[in-house]
Amino acid sequence: MKTAFLLMAQYDGRAIIPVDLVCRDYFSHLTPEKFIRKCALGELAIPLVRLDEKSQKGAKGVALTDLAAYLDRRVAAARKECEQLTSVRM
């Protein structure tokens, strides 16, 4: 199954997912502020979308397609690590 389609169902077809929902569902160890900081510093390879282009403090979100790509990269990395540890091709 395609990750993007699953996320569309999870987030009711939203194109941009608010940061607080992304944190709640996938980064529960981070506050929204820490998540935003890590993205801004390049520690998380997820682009943030400013929903109000004129305000630095405006709401931020993550494009559904960018979140899907990030999750797919993490899954691929986990599979590669598992294959290296177990010699079982996934």
Could you explain how this protein is built, in words?
There is one protein chain. This protein is mainly alpha-helical. Helices cover 53% and strands 10% of the residues. It contains four helices and three strands, in the order H-E-H-H-E-E-H. A three-stranded antiparallel sheet has the order 1-3-2. Helix 1 (3-10) crosses helix 4 (64-86). The model has no long low-confidence stretch (mean pLDDT 92). This is Pyocin activator PrtN family protein.
- Average pLDDT reading: 92
Poorly predicted runs of 5 or more residues:
none
The helix/strand series, from N terminus to C terminus, equals HEHHEEH
**Main pleated sheet:** 3 strands, antiparallel
In total, the number of strands is 3
Shape assignment: globular
Q: Evaluate the radius of gyration.
A: 15 Å
How would you classify the quaternary structure? single chain
Q: Number of helix segments?
A: 4
At a glance:
With 90 residues, the protein is mainly α. 53% of the residues lie in helices and 10% in strands.
Please describe the topology of this protein:
Elements lengths: L2 H8 L5 E3 H8 L5 H9 L8 E2 L9 E4 H23 L4
Antiparallel strand pairs: 1-3, 2-3
Pfam family, one: PyocinActivator
InterPro entries: Tscrpt_reg_PrtN (IPR020518)
Protein name: Pyocin activator PrtN family protein
Supply the key terms:
90 residues, single chain, mainly alpha, Pyocin activator PrtN family protein, 4 helices, three-stranded antiparallel sheet, Tscrpt_reg_PrtN
